[in-house]
Amino acid sequence: MQERIQTTQVDAGIAKADVRGAAKEVSMKVLFAVAAALFVLAVLTICLYLLADAVPTIGKIGFVKFFTDERWLIRSERFGIGSLVVGTALSTAGALLVGVPVGLMTATFMSFYCPKWLYRAIKPLTNILAGIPSIVYGFFGLTVIVPLSREMFGGGGMNLFTTSLVLGIMILPTVISISENSLRAVPKSFYEGALALGATKERAIFRTVFPAASSGVLTAIILGMGRAIGETAAITLICGNIDNIPASLAEPFITLASAIASGMGYASTTNLERPALIAVAAVLLIIILLITTVVMLLKKKKY
Amino acid sequence: MARELILKEGEVDARGIVAINRQSWRDKLRAYRNRPFSFAVFLFVCLGALLSAAAVIWVLGYTFYRGLVFIDPVSGAAKFNLTADLFAWRWTLDNHSMMPALINTLVIALLSLLIAGVIGVFAAIFMVEYAKSTNVFVKIVRIAAETLSGIPSVVFGIFGMIFFVGLFGWGYSLLSGILTMTLMIMPLIMRTTEEALRAVPDSFREGSYALGAGKLRTIFVIILPAAIPGILSGIILGLGRVVGETMALVFTAGSPMNAKTASGLMESGSTLTVYLYNLTNESNEFANVAWAVAVVLIVLVLIINGVAEWVGNKLKKEY
Questions:
Q1: Which of A108, A265, A280, B227 is the most exposed place for a label (fewest CB within 10 A)?
Q2: What pTM does this model have?
Q3: Searching chain B, which residue's CA lies closest to the CA of residue A222?
């Protein structure tokens, strides 16, 4: 009799603990889910608030005028982002022209040619390049490359050449690390098979391994492109910030991001000046969203 | 285990010999003679690697040179640049101390890491331990995280300016900056934590369940401790991101010229990067200060990244 009472008491105790435990389990699960949901909420809020601010502004400026006008003169209220878009495209193209060949060759060197001791020295170097804050690149560009470019091309030195060079260096680590990873992800047998069929090392790498790693390499290039488009702190210091569509490497220009950074400091909130800058940020966001979508579509091939 | 290898007469100790063809440099060059195009490509590859290395050395070398050596603009005399004046507690017009900016940087970094750390780790726990990978919600969260990590910092800055500074009425304040930075580094922490959690073998989970532990206890007592090196190195990488960030903070935490330590979270304050940004807009006379700030920034980020890598490697347990 005594024993039975004890067991029922214990059972009841366990059941009670179970209920409390289960409640804790469920509530924590909900908490974890909420944390995950915050990511979705954050993205939606960012898109929503920027677009909600931007759309009426663009409406006021005039849709066609906003996107096609070449003049970006905040003070005299001419808000055309034509030169901004062209400037962004040109500086990005310049950065890719500088950064992609060098980056891909470096990645190839690191994954196929580099002796181990040298790899241990080079790999941290590329990580260092990735860690340098962009404002430092900008300052370096301003004090070192701008005078250099002034000597080479004349003019102010803040031009497409300077920006392309600095941006090219800035996207190097992105291009190098992602393409190196994707080159290494290609099974060794591809490379060995090509060698066994009599290809030279270079032929094996560039005709066999590279095509197999193409989606990764493309991702590397596109992510580098994304970084170049969104880069602000560095470009604002070295592009000149003049609403000019550059006809040569020696001319100053302006990008979407640098227009925001250079204009926001003194933009007035009472008229369209500040809303127009927010609209530019929204355009930038949409461009980056498109790029992110492309990256996600380029899913990694698995062997 | 260690059995002595006794070589009989005529036998060769083959342990040290790698059983593949080895070419000497001369052999390789001779092979290239018939294939000039391959040789050109080889040179091109080496050139690319050299250019990358040159870029790093150029940027780092020049920054360190100008940051450490003060060159008098008039007399050209050189002396050490990182004087104690630059690290005085209070900023004045004379000393241009970067200490207040450094303190602001650390405050913003630590608080945003705290918030982003909790959110990121919890979200990662949900993604790895609770949800099935085929779940639609998981896919949406993953897309959201990837999108968030691609958004440029200037857009975060503008969003923070509309949302935290304007809508919430917090003004240009450390708090606005902290929350904006939280949004920026959340995806990084979630991704690294997810990787760390996935690296914990399932036998740990099964063993814990078999001993009667619930899911929650398994996660907090068994899985998280095992995954802590990976999580920590992700958080430290996030720290590096915050320290190096400029544009998102200019529009949210403000960029007051007199770099003073913010007395509260509701006050604006320049971080090191913003201080440097301000200095670059000034005339040339502050160039030495700016270089000094640049060096301190780079050293800070290098130390942070080094620690992250060290934590990730040294504390990593092999299962």
A1: A265
A2: 0.86
A3: B150
